[in-house]
């Protein structure tokens, strides 16, 4: 699905992942797909197995006209809140593109502050292939980072839960305290700082 009058080569899809976790960056991706090289199987990254996501991630990187990653750190999330940090990560992803998009389609209800025509589409990651591709790039990028951070901060289970507030993560927080990648403004983390 593409809005009327939007050409595929001019279209940038944008999505972010990591709003809910207690730790790590919120990560966004911007992707401009190549209409001449369609990628089969694109859909919302949450509906794909890890193996399928990794396969599509490689396909997107090899075949997209352009893509870029943007992020906001745990400290930025604490300073400006997770909603604003998500928009900032998306803005950074779009500005990181080498190509200049004529149209930007963003998953959700809100557009970041950019100088391009932008449209927010609820459930866009299921409706627009470029947004699906962005969701896959963002998800695989963030998951890989949390797997690496698990080595830096063992005992929290980051490789398994990717920073989300699972029972294992909440228990590890109580037992081991917070790390530099935890979001201090999130309530479960605040409870550890100020029980």
CATH hierarchy class name: Alpha Beta
- What order do the SSEs take from the amino end to the carboxyl end, as H and E? EEHEHHEEHHHHH
Low-confidence stretches: 1-7
Instruction: Tell me the count of domains.
Output: 1
Instruction: Please count the helical segments.
Output: 8
Number of strands: 5
**Approximate helicity band:** 40-55%
**Which class do the helix and strand fractions yield?**
alpha/beta
Looking at CATH, the homologous superfamily is: Ribonuclease H-like superfamily/Ribonuclease H
**Biggest beta sheet summary:** 5 strands, mixed
Mean pLDDT, as a whole number?
94
End-to-end CA span: 49 Å
> In the CATH hierarchy, what is the architecture at level 2?
2-Layer Sandwich
Strand order of the largest sheet: 3-2-1-4-5
Radius of gyration: 17 Å
Strand content: 15-25%
Features of the shown structure:
195 residues; alpha/beta; Nucleotidyltransferase, domain 5; five-stranded mixed sheet; 8 helices; 5 strands; 43% helix; disordered N terminus
Compact description:
The protein is α/β, with parallel strands linked by helices and 195 residues long. The protein has helices at 50-63, 74-80, 82-95, 124-127, 129-152, 158-161, 167-176, 187-193; strands at residues 11-17, 26-32, 66-72, 103-107, 118-121. The chain has a five-stranded mixed sheet with strand order 3-2-1-4-5.
């Amino acid at each position: 699905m593409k809005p009327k009058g939007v050409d595929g080569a001019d279209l940038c899809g944008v999505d972010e992942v990591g709003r809910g976790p207690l730790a790590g960056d919120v990560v966004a991706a911007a992707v401009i797909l190549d209409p001449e090289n369609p990628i089969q199987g694109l859909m919302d990254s949450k509906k794909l197995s890890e193996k399928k996501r990794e396969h599509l991630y490689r396909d997107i990187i090899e075949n997209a006209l352009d893509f870029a990653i943007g992020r906001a750190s745990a400290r930025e999330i604490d300073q400006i809140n997770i909603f604003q940090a998500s928009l900032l990560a998306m803005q950074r992803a779009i500005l990181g593109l080498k190509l200049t998009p004529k149209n930007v389609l963003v998953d959700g209800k809100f557009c970041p502050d950019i100088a391009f025509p932008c449209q927010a589409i609820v459930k866009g990651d299921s409706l627009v292939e470029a947004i699906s591709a962005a969701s896959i790039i963002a998800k695989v990028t963030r998951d890989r980072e949390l797997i690496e951070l698990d080595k830096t901060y063992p005992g929290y289970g980051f490789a398994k839960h990717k920073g989300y507030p699972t029972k294992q993560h909440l228990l590890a927080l109580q037992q081991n305290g917070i790390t530099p990648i935890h979001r201090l403004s999130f309530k479960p983390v605040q409870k550890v700082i100020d029980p």
